[in-house]
Specification:
This protein is mostly helical and about 140 residues long. It has one domain. It contains 7 helices and 5 strands, in the order H-E-H-H-E-E-E-E-H-H-H-H. A hairpin with a 2-residue loop joins strand 2 and strand 3. Helix 1 crosses helix 5 and helix 4 packs parallel to helix 7. The longest helix has 18 residues. The protein starts with a helix and ends in a 5-residue tail after the last helix. This is Antitoxin Xre/MbcA/ParS-like toxin-binding domain-containing protein.
């Protein structure tokens, strides 16, 4: 049973990583113009400040590119911090990644990651609904 569960978890994680644009700290530094001296500094600070999350995969943290706004030099979109606050203590980083990558009926069968920048209030509301236990069918 554990073997099947481990395989399913690995498949789910690979699907999530393949479903969206995930970036390493070094890649964020390249596109955002931060100092390359210690590339993980700024993304790690954002994570510590609750402004972004990252999923660990093979010893590397991957940050959600869909949450970085090109209009602000690839800083985390403000709505992400609001969603992270809603889920704090309820979902780990992989749980967050699964939620953002999954079709959500509260969002008209769209994925939260696809609406985070264009309709941030709806994404925050969908997170609040999930925490409140609202069932969508």
């Amino acid at each position: 049973m554990k073997e099947v569960e481990a395989r399913m978890t690995a498949e789910a994680r690979n699907a999530v990583l393949e479903s969206g644009d995930w970036l390493t700290a070094a890649q964020i530094v390249q596109i955002s113009g931060f100092s390359a001296t210690n590339p993980s500094d700024q993304p790690t600070k954002w994570k510590e400040d609750g402004r972004i999350f990252a999923v660990p995969h093979r010893g590397v943290d991957y940050f959600p590119g869909y949450a970085l706004d090109p209009a602000t030099n690839y800083r985390p979109v403000d709505a992400l911090a609001a969603v992270l606050a809603v889920f704090r203590g309820r979902k780990d980083d992989w749980g967050l990644a699964y939620w953002f990558a999954s079709i959500n009926s509260c969002l008209g069968s769209k994925r939260p990651q696809d609406l985070l920048m264009s309709e941030p209030a709806r994404v925050v509301a969908a997170a609040e609904d999930e925490v409140a236990g609202v069932l969508h069918g």
